[in-house]
Amino acid sequence: MCSASSDFGQFSGCAAGAHVLSGNVFEPRALDELIPNWRQEDSPIRVPVSSDKFWLLTKNQAWTLPSPFDNKGNYVISLSQLVRWMGTKAEELGVEVYPGFAASEILYDENQIVTGVATNDVGIAKDGTKRETFQPGVELRGRITLFAEGCRGSLSEKIIRNHKLRERGQGQHQTYALGIKEVWEIEEGKHKPGSVIHTVGWPLDTKTYGGSFLYHLDDRQLAIGLVVALNYRNPFLSPYDEFQKFKQHPAVRELLEGGTAIQYGARTLNEGGFQSIPYPVFPGGAIIGCSAGFLNVPKIKGTHTAMKSGMLAAEATFKSLVEGSSMELYWENLKKSWIWEELHKARNYRPAFEYGFIPGMALSALERYIFKGKSPYTLKHGRPDHEATDTANLHVPIQYPKPDGQITFDVPTSLYRSNTNHEHDQPPHLRLRDPTIPEQVNVPLYAGPESRYCPARVYEYVSDEKGDPKLQINAQNCLHCKACDIKDPKQNIEWTVPEGGGGPGYTVM
């Protein structure tokens, strides 16, 4: 979040970029506008895209298709490294950055105008008592507050819901995907800096939207990941285990053999695009970046659009503070910007796959090669992700292979590589609105899907003294991916911030 008076402040993990995860093939368009001479500086943007391939995977084959991506002039980067670098640049300009503080509350004045945020108390024990390390939260107030929490930000969602911003904007609900990623060090002979490969098909079925990526960075590093749309139907599907299966594909396993996995993480991403953009302005501030949802799905890119939205909001904020103009200027300029044009052209790709993989590919080809983003119609999204899950009786449980410890791994091993850490003696930040729903609804109807959609095994069913399943929440494992907040069938899980600085500690993601 940013609370604006003369300075801005950012709240994050234990360090700037520690919670930031993305693919990431970076389009520098917004950065070119913000820092025109960045190429002459010591930035972490060093590896230009050298090749761009698109594969259709079957279980044992990789078929090369014409690439729908145009990554010429883009770069393969670590977004967490870029955020750290930009945080340093901001501090050089006098911006105050406060890593390790979690904003937990929205502050209002007597007229219900947002006046800032409050951080949560730290040093509270699980039983609610104050430990010796107790420190009360602080209030950070400003004339304008910009919310930039990333996808499914907890406070941003409250603002969107309370002010009915989605209804005032493009009107449709947001839809999401879960991205699971590892960074590997691979053998020198297999490393091709700047090589970019995207895939569709196996291991996902034809009713589940998603795909994978393999990006070659520098220093023999390879970013590999799987993205699964969270409107998948089968409650037995485990995105984490699908990712492990993907790594066993012959074309992928060959690349990883002899290498070492060095980091793991997961994060949800917005896929609603143009149809789901909320009205971003509210009394006292605005919502920017992925909290609003500016990801371009067919490009698989949202960093450049998120960055540009922040620039437009900053310009509107400056004029509001100095000239007394309205923050509505942000909304007006957003609709005039290349963000709006880009997302409008891309609006029909994601909802096309509501009809299945083959129709989705056909409609996407029609959009790209015939209509070129100027089709006379706008497709609508299907049901919200949490409503898309079928009951368990409509599906057969999926038998996933056991990890081999070399290419595929169990969750505890992966979690260790995420550097995730939470103070154990604190109130759980994952709360059930109704504690009876897991056992009375989720288990009998959906076979306990939270034990599978979470990529950190936060949710685990254990037997009670009667032998009945009881939900156990291992909040200390939480990667802050937000999948549970999105996918729970009855929206019964409330995601709140843990003690400041808790969560993953990404360095190369």
TrEMBL record:
Domain ETF-QO/FixX C-terminal: from-to ranges: 405-507
Manner of cofactor binding, per the entry note: Binds 1 [4Fe-4S] cluster.
GO molecular function, one term: metal ion binding
Keyword field: Electron transport, FAD, Flavoprotein, Iron, Iron-sulfur, Membrane, Metal-binding, Mitochondrion, Mitochondrion inner membrane, Oxidoreductase, Transit peptide, Transport, Ubiquinone
Subcellular location: Mitochondrion inner membrane
Organism, as annotated: Sorghum bicolor
Cofactor(s) it depends on: FAD; [4Fe-4S] cluster
KW Nucleotidyltransferase (keyword) present: no
Family: Belongs to the ETF-QO/FixC family.
Protein's name in the database: Electron transfer flavoprotein-ubiquinone oxidoreductase
Cellular-component GO terms for this entry: mitochondrial inner membrane
ETF-QO/FixC ubiquinone-binding domain sequence ranges: 176-269
Reaction it catalyzes: a ubiquinone + reduced [electron-transfer flavoprotein] = a ubiquinol + oxidized [electron-transfer flavoprotein] + H(+)
EC number(s) recorded for this UniProt protein: 1.5.5.1
Its job: Accepts electrons from ETF and reduces ubiquinone.
